[in-house]
Amino acid sequence: MIGPSDRLTVGTLGTLMPPAVNLIKNAQRNEGQGYAGLWWPDHYMGWFPQALWTADFTPLAAFQPNPDVFFEPLVAMAAAAGATSRIHLGTAVTEALRRHPVELAQAFLTLDHLAPGRIICGLGSGEALNLLPYGIPFERPVGRLEEAVQVIRLLWSQDGPVDFEGEHFQLRQAVLGLKPSPEGPPEIWLAAHGPRMLDITARYADGWLPEYMSLENYRTRLERLEQRRRAAGRASTPFTPGMYAKLVLADSHEQAHRILATPLLRALTLTQPAEAYARHGAVHPLGENANGIRDFIPVRFTRAQALSLIEGVPSAVVEDGVLHGTPEEVTEQLGRYYAVGLRHVVLWNVTFFGDASLIRRSYELMGGLLPLVNDIRAAEAASS
Predict the structure, then answer these.
(1) Deepest of 138, 264, 278, 286, by most Cβ within 10 A of its Cβ?
(2) Count of structural domains, the chain
């Protein structure tokens, strides 16, 4: 568990790209600033169409030739582990489609020995953009995830040879001699949204890390999780309700909305599912049954196609999908999530994708946001 159960802790993304020296410097800086966690996505391909990664849409294109530059997350976590002593380190998220669960079990145990008690194995059911372009099948991902968690738990808990008979994975007298550190094993958090994934999270996970969603959706999903945890006899087991949120932070609410209206941030909204559009009486530009992040492959769209898609994104969908505003406004919003159970939020600063001139300012504002969020517990107690 990241921090006390009565506090809302804050995580952010670890350094994703060269120069590698920044990975160490930023991890140490983030720990010193008081962030509770650093999180790495596990990506080959990014979320922005390469066709739009041009100087007329973002000055960032002059410094970084394409949007698909990512460090391997487990290697990056190992480097950060050696440079820090308190901050938690996790994946947000990897999956058991590219990585076999035995590989995951061994890799995360190795990280556990490098940073005892600080490692989180964040898992999800996968994204098409990391699989299909590379010839990796994207079939029955939820079933594979459920079995993968069972295999990982089995290998972490047994000293001798083990057997496992599943539809997707089979073990015959398999051995993993490496065992958890005294502070381990790593926690397992799942990026769950639908009913079946929530049920798997309730039975097997130590934390929940969904994408940012409306307060009511978060409340109802967390209630389902807690009901299923009680039914599984896990109500007393430590558990951290989390959330992964894209963040636009600005000096005024109006400035935040201007940033949200820019092409790259509108493009990010294509990763939202069809129901996010239906709530506003709109149809997802990829179709009425679009699964968003499950099937959006940005590299496959020409410039004209990408522009046509983002023209079909209503402003209300963009605003619903990104945590945004001034530090005070964002703190107020997070306070409402805290009141229904949120205990760890991962903030991905996307402000500068809308306005590259705000790179420095947006991170200054994040520095001011952190103590405000850390005070949410005190403010909640004072108002009760």
Answers:
(1) 264
(2) 1
Cβ(280)–Cβ(286) below 8 Å: no
Instruction: From residue 384, give the alpha-carbon distance in Å to each of 6, 101, 190.
Output: 14, 45, 31
In terms of pTM, does the model score above 0.90? yes
Residue 310 lies in a domain: no
Q: Which residues have C-beta within 8 Å of that of residue 216, sequence separation ≥ 6?
A: none
Q: Is residue 146 part of a domain?
A: yes
Tens digit of each residue's pLDDT (9 = 90 or more) over 319-336: 999 999 999 999 999 999
51 located within any domain: yes
- Confidence check: pLDDT of 138 > 70: yes
Residue 177 counted as domain residue: yes
**Full domain range(s) for residue 103:** 9-249+324-383
If DSSP codes are grouped into helix, strand and coil, which group holds residue 46? coil
- CATH number of the domain bearing residue 226: 3.20.20.30
Helix (H) or strand (E) holding 317: helix 315-321
pLDDT given at position 381 = 46
* Residue labelled with tokens 């496992």: 164
Please, are residues 110 and 119 in contact by the beta-carbon 8 Å criterion? no
Strand, helix or coil at 358? helix
CB atoms within 10 A of CB 114: 17
